[in-house]
């Protein structure tokens, strides 16, 4: 199959990639809303120009906001690599079954990581979510590296 066909919705694997990539990107974007609603409700800001009222209280450290920010940062460390490697993986023309499992495992593990981080669930729950997602991306990367340098 030509590269142009691989990167089109005629290719079932590309359709799967588009679906899972969009779902996990929306999840990552949701983290901004999660942090923002705490900021608004508790009137905690990040910039001096945002302060309305008590300056002392406006800059206090809030454990829920900090947890949400760490969770968001962890998404940003892991989801963009999945988006890049996953797209290159589509170009290796994997089977539908193999691609489905790679994408599905990554996305489920990232949702699980978020639940484990925000709840919080006892460790090693969060570490497991992180590690399984990372394995899915590394496995796709190995496929790309094998095919990309022939
Ligand atoms: N940047 C991460 C690298 C390692 C990592 O992603 N660990 C996972 C599993 S323990 C995690 O959820 N880390 C917490 C975090 O990034 O805030 C860190 O500093 O912890």
From TrEMBL:
EC numbers for this chain: 2.5.1.18
Listed GO CC annotations: endoplasmic reticulum membrane; mitochondrial outer membrane
Major place of residence: endoplasmic reticulum
Keywords recorded for this protein, A-Z: Acetylation, Endoplasmic reticulum, Membrane, Mitochondrion, Mitochondrion outer membrane, Transferase, Transmembrane, Transmembrane helix
Subcellular location: Endoplasmic reticulum membrane; Mitochondrion outer membrane
One protein family per Pfam: MAPEG
InterPro entries recorded: MAPEG-like_dom_sf, Membr-assoc_MAPEG, MGST1-like
Source organism, top-level taxon: Eukaryota
Annotated membrane topology: Multi-pass membrane protein
MF terms (GO), sorted A to Z: glutathione transferase activity
Residues that span the membrane, as ranges: 16-35, 82-107, 127-145
Reaction catalysed by this enzyme: RX + glutathione = an S-substituted glutathione + a halide anion + H(+)
PANTHER family named in the record: MICROSOMAL GLUTATHIONE S-TRANSFERASE 1 (PTHR10689:SF6)
Subunit structure: Homotrimer; The trimer binds only one molecule of glutathione.
Family according to the record: Belongs to the MAPEG family.
Function of the molecule: Conjugation of reduced glutathione to a wide number of exogenous and endogenous hydrophobic electrophiles.
Protein's UniProt name: Microsomal glutathione S-transferase 1
